[in-house]
Amino acid sequence: MGRKRKKTWEEMTELERLQEENERLRTEVAYLKKLKELEERDEVLQRERQKQLEKWFQEDFD
Fold it and tell me: What whole-number distance in Å separates Cα of residue 57 and Cα of residue 59?
């Protein structure tokens, strides 16, 4: 009992090819959304760290 062999691109019907492409694009969109979220989170953390450093720097000179 093995897995069913995946059809080649030429063996697929147009509907199957479109479904396959749609699934790939949905996966890509989800990946890019997650990447954007992580980049935005990193930017927020970096700004917070910078503000904290500026605060400490200012306290040292007061």
Answer: 5
Q: How far apart are CA 34 and CA 48, in angstroms?
A: 21
Question: What would the two tokens of residue 6 be?
Answer: 């995946």
E strand segments, the chain: none
pTM for this predicted structure: 0.65
Q: How far apart are CA 38 and CA 58, in angstroms?
A: 30
Q: How far apart are CA 33 and CA 4, in angstroms?
A: 32
pLDDT in tens, 28-59: 999 999 999 999 999 999 999 999 999 988 88
Calpha distance 18→24 (Å, rounded): 10
Q: Which two tokens stand for residue 51?
A: 């503000």
